[in-house]
Write a structure and sequence with these properties.
Blueprint: H1 13-19, E1 51-52, E2 60-65, E3 73-80, E4 85-91, E5 95-101, E6 103-108, E7 118-121, E8 125-128, E9 134-137, E10 143-150, E11 155-157
Antiparallel strand pairs: 1-2, 2-3, 3-10, 4-9, 4-11, 5-8, 5-10, 6-7, 6-9
Length: 160
């Protein structure tokens, strides 16, 4: 079977991401683990460092690897609480997204329009092409999204 992908970025994302990480690891007791290959890392869910997005919404996010402000591969997760809306905006880079949990509603256009929202359930993968206006929302449940892109990433708000 041949797998095709919508963009070059999806090829080797984990291999490239791991290459940018440190070569030692610590266990929960703080002791240094045996030497591990360069780029090897693991972040248990209870050790993810969530922070407010700073965009006025109740969303929180965490950078898992890379630095979105630099020209490098990055990965981040964002928790969308129930009944959260993000108005129309765009990003300066191509972003690839996987819905890790819940249901996310996503649409494209220069203005938020609930009639244009498409339902994205757990496991769905979708893209947000560079400079394409889009918007999103959750309804009665939280959604957690995983984003991968190559920075620098910038968010340009089209609506206030």
């Amino acid at each position: 079977m041949t797998l095709t992908r919508p963009g070059k970025l999806m090829t080797g994302v984990l291999v490239i991401a791991c290459a940018s990480m440190t070569s030692t690891a610590q266990n929960k007791s703080g002791a240094t683990a045996p030497e591990v290959p360069k780029g090897w890392f693991s972040i248990p869910p209870d050790e993810i460092k969530w922070a407010k997005n700073g965009d006025g919404t109740p969303r929180v996010g965490a950078i898992l690897f890379g630095d979105p402000s630099k020209h490098e591969l990055y990965g981040l997760v964002v928790k969308w609480p129930p009944n959260t809306t993000a108005k129309a905006h765009s990003h300066s880079d191509d972003r690839y997204v996987v819905v890790l949990s819940g249901t996310f509603y996503h649409g494209h256009g220069d203005k938020f329009d609930a009639t244009k929202l498409e339902r994205r359930t757990k496991g769905t993968t979708f893209s947000e092409p560079a400079n394409v206006a889009h918007f999103g929302a959750t309804k009665d449940e939280e959604a957690v999204l995983y984003f991968v892109g190559v920075g620098p990433d910038r968010t340009d708000a089209l609506e206030k």
